[in-house]
Design brief:
The chain is α/β, with parallel strands linked by helices and about 220 residues long. The chain has two domains: about 120 residues, 3-Layer(aba) Sandwich (Rossmann fold), CATH 3.40.50; about 100 residues, Orthogonal Bundle (Arc Repressor Mutant, subunit A). The chain is built from eight helices and twelve strands. The chain has a five-stranded parallel sheet, sandwiched between helices. Strands 6-7-8-9 form a four-stranded antiparallel sheet, covered by helices on one side. Helix 3 links the parallel strand 3 and strand 4. Helix 1 crosses helix 5 and helix 2 runs parallel beside helix 3. The radius of gyration is 18 Å and the shape is elongated. The chain binds calcium ion (CA). Calcium ion binds next to loops.
Length: about 220
């Protein structure tokens, strides 16, 4: 899962980036409103963490512009402003959640995880596909009730597919959501990754839709 963090406070940006990275997310950071707005318009993010007080363009304006242009990714607003009026304004402009500074990183992580889950239609933090289970809270995976160790990249790949279960996900889409913007993206890597996941779980759990992409589904004999 790939997250855009728009935050001009260097310290906060670093802390949030580290915490998100440890939880398996890829993070792109924008340090001013202009860059933030541009990235949100041009890159596909699974969620955005948006500070309100920003150089160049303020957070609420960015949010309004995104929503008017039809960008519907979940947005969590971070702000030092504390009045209920600001909260209401942010939510009315299309924010999905709100966190006041100073905040606990654990709370931010829990909120982001819930936002991503809900935006892909999952209410339960334990995602399952047949006997394959992924706990989005603890980042642990299991298959047939046995724990399965995953590398960070494998986890991101599986997590994206689990959140979009049953849908055909193209290589390009997958690449965009498991790598940051600066990464040299090579679609051959995706094939290797998918094969590694198939070996760790079942070769039948991730189907190849020729020319279209991959589809995570419950194997026929498990449904
Ligand atoms: Ca700020």
């Amino acid at each position: 899962m790939r997250i855009l963090l728009v935050e001009d406070d260097y310290q906060i940006a670093r802390q949030v980036e580290t915490a998100l990275g440890r939880s398996g997310y890829i993070v792109d950071i924008a340090r001013d409103g202009e860059e933030g707005q541009f990235l949100g318009e041009t890159e596909p993010y699974d969620a955005v963490i948006l500070d309100l007080g920003l150089p160049m363009i303020d957070g609420l304006t960015i949010l309004r512009n995104w929503r008017q242009a039809g960008h519907v990714m979940p947005v969590l607003i971070l702000t030092a402003r504390t009045t209920w009026r600001d909260t209401v304004t942010g939510l009315r402009e299309g924010a999905d959640d709100y966190l006041k500074k100073p905040f606990e990183l654990e709370e931010l992580l829990a909120r982001i995880e819930a936002l991503i889950r809900r935006s892909s239609g999952h209410a339960n933090p334990l995602l399952s596909c047949g006997t394959l289970e992924l706990d989005t809270g603890s980042s642990r995976a299991s298959y047939n009730n046995l724990p399965v160790e995953l590398t960070a990249l494998e986890f991101r790949t599986l997590s994206y597919l689990m959140h979009h279960q049953g849908q055909v996900v193209s290589k390009t889409e997958l690449t965009e959501h498991i790598y940051g913007q600066d990464f040299d993206r090579d679609s051959n890597v995706i094939e290797v990754l998918i094969n590694r996941l198939r070996k760790k779980f079942s070769s039948r759990i991730i189907k190849t839709r020729r020319g279209l992409g991959y589809q995570l589904t419950v194997p026929d004999d498990e449904s």
